[in-house]
Design a protein that fits this description.
binds iron/sulfur cluster; 36% helix; alpha/beta; 366 residues; 9-stranded mixed β-sheet
Length: 366
C-alpha cells in the first residue's frame, strides 16, 4: 500500500478504537458529494442526469463540516459531480483539514490549473485525479478529446507544487490486461503517490449500459493484470486483501457502512452507488435505519456485479484486522493469480428479467 505511514497509523488507531468500543458498524471513509453538477458527461456516470434545479444545488460549508463531525470517519473523499465547480470548496477543504481528517479531493482535473492557487499543500490533502486509462481510453471514457492531456498536465503541476496526488482509474469493457499494465507503468512514471483501480459499477442511470464488466470477467482481468505486474512494483492505493478480492481469491460480504455518503438529499442508503434506496436525515439515522442485510452482491440484484471499494475495501480491512498474517502474506507475495477462485456468491434473489428503463423517484430526507 502506498499511503504514508502517518495516515496508516491514524487509520489503524481509529480501527483499534472502534474495536475497543465494540462497534460492529463504523465509517472509514465519508463520501461527501457537495454537488452533482459536472463539466463532463462521461458514458459510465450515474450522477449527472438530474434536472437543472438539482444540479444547481450545493451543500454549504456549514453542512459539509457538520457532516464530517457527525460521521467521525478519519478520511473524507470529496466527490460529485465535479467538486472544483463548488465556489466554497477551498473553505470546505480547509475546515476538514483543521479537524485533522485526510481529504481526497476527487476531480477530473479540468479546472485544477485555474484553481490550484486556492489550496495549500498538506499531508492531509490529496488530489485524486480521474484517469480511466491511456489517452484514447480515457478520452473515450469521458466522451471528450483532449481531457487526458489536460488531466496529465494537472497531475504534473500539482506534484511540482508539492501536493499529494493519486490517480483514480475505473475499468470498463474492452480493456485488456497489457493495456492496463502499461497504464499503471505510466502512472508510476508520472510520480503519483498511488493509483486506485476498480471495475465500473453498472449504474442504472448511466447513459451507456454495455460498457460494464461482469464480476467473473473482472476477476480474471485483475488476475491477468497482477500476473504481468508481478515485478513492476506498482503503487496501488488499496489494502492487500481488497486486491486479493479483485483477483477472485476472497468472497467478501459488502460493508457499505464503511463508506457512508452525504449529498444534497441527505445521507444516502446504503451507498453512493444505489440511487433510489432513499435517504436518512442524519448519520445516526442512516446507521440505525438502513436495512443493511438487504445489500451485497449475493443479496440484491442491484448489487449483482459490484466489486467497488466503497463496499468491499472496508470488508477487506475488517478481514485484515482479524487475520493480519493473511494480509501481510498477500502484501508481500501479491494476490494469487492462478488456481481456483473463491466461490461466487450464490444469489438469494430471483435473477431479474430484462425490463425497460424507468423513471427514478428520489426520497429526500426531511
Ligand atoms: S464520472 Fe465524474 S467526471 Fe465524469 S461526468 Fe461523472 S462526475 Fe463528472
Ligand atoms: S454491493 Fe454494496 S457497495 Fe456495491 S452497490 Fe451494493 S450496497 Fe453498494
Amino acid at each position: 500500500m502506498s499511503v504514508p505511514l502517518r495516515q496508516q497509523f491514524t487509520v489503524a488507531k481509529y480501527l483499534v478504537q472502534q474495536k475497543l468500543k465494540g462497534n460492529k458498524r463504523y465509517p472509514l471513509v465519508l463520501m461527501l458529494e457537495p454537488l452533482f453538477r459536472c463539466n463532463l458527461a462521461c458514458a459510465g456516470c450515474g450522477k449527472i442526469d438530474y434536472p437543472d434545479e438539482i444540479l444547481n444545488r450545493r451543500l454549504s460549508v456549514e453542512e459539509c463540516l457538520a457532516s464530517v463531525d457527525e460521521c467521525g470517519a478519519p478520511i473524507v473523499s470529496i466527490a460529485g459531480g465535479e467538486p472544483l465547480l463548488h465556489k466554497e470548496l477551498p473553505r470546505i477543504v480547509e475546515g476538514i483539514i483543521a479537524r485533522r481528517k485526510y481529504v481526497y479531493l476527487c476531480t477530473n482535473a479540468l479546472l485544477l490549473k485555474k484553481r490550484i492557487g486556492d489550496y495549500k499543500p498538506s499531508p492531509y490533502l490529496t488530489f485524486s485525479i480521474h484517469l480511466d486509462g491511456n489517452r484514447e481510453r480515457h478520452d473515450a471514457s469521458v466522451c471528450q478529446r483532449g481531457v487526458f492531456e489536460r488531466a496529465v498536465e494537472a497531475v504534473e503541476l500539482a506534484i511540482s507544487r508539492g501536493f499529494r496526488v493519486t490517480i483514480n482509474c475505473t475499468l470498463f469493457q474492452g480493456e485488456g490486461a497489457e493495456e492496463i499494465a502499461e497504464f499503471l507503468d505510466y502512472c508510476q512514471k508520472l510520480g503519483v503517490e498511488g493509483t486506485t483501480i476498480a471495475p465500473g459499477f453498472s449504474y442504472e442511470r448511466a447513459p451507456k449500459q454495455d460498457i460494464f464488466i461482469k464480476m467473473r470477467e473482472s476477476k480474471q482481468l485483475f488476475r491477468d493484470v497482477f500476473k504481468i505486474g508481478r515485478n513492476r512494483k506498482w503503487k496501488l492505493n488499496h489494502s492487500s486483501l481488497y486486491l486479493d478480492f479483485l483477483a477472485g481469491n476472497q468472497s467478501y460480504n459488502c460493508t457499505p457502512w464503511g463508506n457512508p455518503t452525504r449529498n444534497i438529499f441527505g445521507w444516502q442508503k446504503p451507498c453512493y452507488l444505489l440511487v433510489d434506496e432513499g435517504y436518512a436525515p442524519t448519520f445516526k439515522a442512516l446507521m440505525e435505519e438502513t436495512p443493511w442485510h438487504k445489500y451485497g452482491n449475493s443479496k440484491n440484484p442491484k448489487c449483482a456485479n459490484c466489486m467497488a471499494h466503497c463496499g468491499y475495501e472496508a470488508s477487506a480491512v475488517e478481514d485484515a484486522m482479524r487475520r493480519p498474517w493473511k494480509a501481510a502474506w498477500t502484501a508481500w507475495f501479491g494476490p494469487r493469480t492462478s488456481g481456483e477462485m473463491a466461490p461466487e456468491p450464490i444469489p438469494e434473489y430471483e435473477l431479474p428479467t430484462a425490463k425497460p428503463r424507468r423513471a427514478i423517484t428520489i426520497e429526500v430526507a426531511e
